[in-house]
Amino acid sequence: MVVSHLRTTLRTRVAGLLAAAVAGIALTAVEPAPQAARADACDGTSGVTVVIDFTAFGGDVEVACAPGDPDTGLAAIQDAGFAVEGTLRWGLAFVCRLGGLPTPDVEPCIDTPQASGYWSYWHAPRGGDWEYSDKGVLNYDPAPGSVEGWSYGASEPPSIPAP
After folding, report:
1. Rounded to an integer, what distance in angstroms lies between the CA atom of residue 126 and that of residue 139?
2. Is the pLDDT of residue 17 over 50?
3. What is the mean pLDDT of residues 120-134?
4. Report field, pTM of the whole predicted structure over 0.85
5. CB atoms within 10 A of CB 141
6. For residue 87, what are the CA distances in angstroms to 22, 52, 107, 127, 161?
């Protein structure tokens, strides 16, 4: 009976250690949660303003500030506090989801999304006209004081002027 109790105790402890180890591995594989989006455009040249147009999904246009001088368009999105997901094939080099949209049932984000529905990438000077990006999110270095824009659909700019 003592041996049976020891086996049960040992199994329970091993199971607990395995569960803790698996939970630790799962936590290290997840990217940290994005910061809360700053709800306004940046002031002057103190950061990069990020505009994400969620109107294709029935949402609003959200504007936030990425403080400082982000090295890439991806850093600007993340520093402004927006959740971003890439594709299985290209990772974060190809933005597939912003703020959880489109949902996985609409776009599985395995490869590049279809041309009629993807996040298009735009740049503008403060208060200027939107210009479609000829570079990818990892290859563009936005200047402090500039505006980065994202819109879902077939290459239409964000529905508001660059702040």
Report:
1. 21
2. no
3. 96
4. no
5. 15
6. 25, 19, 10, 32, 29
Pairs from 93-97 (Cβ < 8 Å, separation ≥ 24)? 93/136, 93/137, 93/138, 94/136, 94/137, 95/119, 95/121, 95/137, 95/150
> Residue 91 carries which side chain, given as an amino acid letter?
G
Determine contact, residues 64/80, Cβ cutoff 8 Å.
Answer: yes
Phi-psi region of 44 (alpha: psi -120 to 50; beta: other; left: phi over 0): left
Kindly list the distances between the CA atom of residue 82 and the CA atoms of 74, 76, 159, in Å, as whole numbers in the listed order: 10, 9, 18
CA distances from 106 to 13, 44, 103 (A): 43, 38, 5
Q: In this structure, are residues 86 and 109 in contact, taking their beta carbons and an 8 Å threshold?
A: yes
Q: Which helix (H) or strand (E) holds 25?
A: helix 2-29
How far, in Å, CA of 125 to CA of 152, rounded? Answer: 21
pLDDT at residue 76 above 80? yes
DSSP letter, residue 82: -
Q: CA 138, 130, 140 angle in degrees (round to 5)?
A: 15
Q: pLDDT tens digits for 81-107?
A: 999 999 999 999 999 999 999 999 999
